[in-house]
Amino acid sequence: MRVGIIGYGTIGTDVAGFIQRGEAGEASLAAVLVRKGLTCESGPAGKSGKPLFTASFNEFMEQAPDLVVECAGHSAVAAYGERVLRTADFMVVSAGALADEDLHGRLMKTARENGHRLVVPSAAIAGLDRIAAASVGYMEEVSLITRKPPKAWIGTFVEDKLNLEGLTEPVCVFEGPARESAKLFPESVNVSAALSLAGIGFDRTTVKVFVDPGITSNRHQVVARGKFGELQLEVGNTPSAANPKTGYIVAMSVIHNLRKLSGPFMIGL
Ligand SMILES: NC(=O)C1=CN([C@@H]2O[C@H](COP(=O)(O)OP(=O)(O)OC[C@H]3O[C@@H](n4cnc5c(N)ncnc54)[C@H](O)[C@@H]3O)[C@@H](O)[C@H]2O)C=CC1
Ligand SMILES: O=C([O-])CC(=O)C(=O)O
């Protein structure tokens, strides 16, 4: 399976590294789309040689990827999604972009018409296998509480509202439906979108978001109840050194999915 990566930041670099070290099953790295003006022109060589690093989307797609992994942010999903899905599967890490109903609808239509798949990895959250299975029956509740340390909110709109350095107690900065949280925190609450897509949708999934000076990991707590029974889980993601908003687990989850999609054995669905 030939893989293309859009975005060579925290997640994209880790995903490329895993693939090039041969840790992504049958997947090989064909190309990386970098932002225009970026000087990075090469990355690690792998079993199929060096991938093409380019800022040209046409050149990127000319490498004929079977699957493209988006690791670049919401705007990249909107900018490239439909064009990717005409010829390849599209794995979207910035799942919050799909809170835009029109975009989600267009991506689904293009995927269907061209026989390709829109794939959302579990990334920073867990339990989506069970939530997705549970949503086959009636569900009363799916809720999420996301908590991250102050430094994870630098560069977000929260920075303008709070003195992040001076916090001594957790502060709730959002409470509402996942459709709003996914749009309000494009770089840091994509988990609410993945949870919504797996379960009962963006409007019925409820979310609370906290800046918490008492923790060092990015924590996501999920509660679900329905015909299936109930589920309560909490994950603590180690923030990556390059970007404290993003856990290392995100790239690992992408790799797990590449193994599944490229190989003869699937587990964790
Ligand atoms: N589903 C989940 O659980 C998670 C999703 N995310 C999503 O992943 C995104 C990326 O996260 P990081 O790698 O930590 O961010 P990052 O900021 O470290 O890297 C993003 C990279 O994408 C590049 N980029 C942006 N627009 C581009 C474009 N149009 N074409 C090519 N390259 C482009 C940037 O130059 C940068 O190198 C976040 O914005 C967030 O939306 C992040 C963490 C968890
Ligand atoms: O990595 C995390 O803990 C979650 C995250 O940034 C996101 O959901 O966008």
UniProtKB/TrEMBL annotation:
Residues 7-121 form the Aspartate/homoserine dehydrogenase NAD-binding domain. NAD(+) binds at A124, N190. GO terms for biological process: NAD+ biosynthetic process. The keyword NADP applies. It comes from Paenibacillus apii. Residues 167-255 form the Aspartate dehydrogenase domain. This is L-aspartate dehydrogenase. Signal peptide: none annotated. NCBIfam families: PRK13303.1-3. The gene is nadX. It holds the Pfam family Asp_DH_C. Keywords: NAD, NADP, Oxidoreductase, Pyridine nucleotide biosynthesis.
